[in-house]
Amino acid sequence: MLITRRVEFSASHVCRNPQFSEERNRALYGAAANPRGHGHNYLVEVTLDGAPDPLTGMVYDLKRLKEVLTREVVEPFDHRFLNHEVPPFDRVVPTTENLAVEIWRRLAPHFQDEKVSLYGVRVYETEDLYVDYRGETAWSA
Amino acid sequence: MVRLTRRYRFAASHRLHSNHLSERENREMYGKCNYPYGHGHDYVLEVAVRGPRDAESGLAVDQRILDRLVSEEVLGPLDHKNLNLDVPAFQDVVPTAENLAAEVRRRLGDRWREAFAGPWPVLESIRIFETKRNIVELSNTL
What we know:
The complex is a heterodimer. By secondary structure, chain A is α+β, with helices and mostly antiparallel strands.
């Protein structure tokens, strides 16, 4: 059974690779390459996979999940300029793709010894653009 | 490997009416959707694309290419059109959300390799929201 919790954070970022020319950055990232940055209200959906505990009826304690998401995602990301304040985005372009993978990396260690497993991370950059990541082994074919 | 989903909107009218059914059968099958002058929807189209992230750019898909392809193949031909009268594919095919999803996938699929050079990204699924409550999905992985 899958269970999903949503969290939101607002952050600014700029999508440009300093190794690329100005023309290539503009061509790849469009307006998102504006060097002074811009922001989004990000929405993150985190999905766990597990069976309901026969005693509690719960796949996972949602209070604990909320605490993990607050500590690992909301507190470090919310109202930050990702490129300047949130590693590894000082070195890695904070595309939606890279954000989804980074959020997965921060969350995965919390669910290694649990009866549940981390199934997926979905990051909405806007209502009209979202990215799903399910770990390195998913979709490998 | 990540999956990126992009959402687009278009407005179109249609009438659900099969040339292979009688007037009465059409009315029973499609109800209000068979009213003779047609009606319209604000369609939402979700296109899900899957591929590996490029190590340098951090991108799995060039969104400009995807947006251009969807604009040329779907939004341009369908937005503010009468699907039955303006879109050749629906001359003899009923423009249900199901058939619309199949037509959109065919249109994108036909030009996919021309638009994206190389094996990635792949077109994974199409979702058509005819209304907030009526959704059709056409997926390679279902």
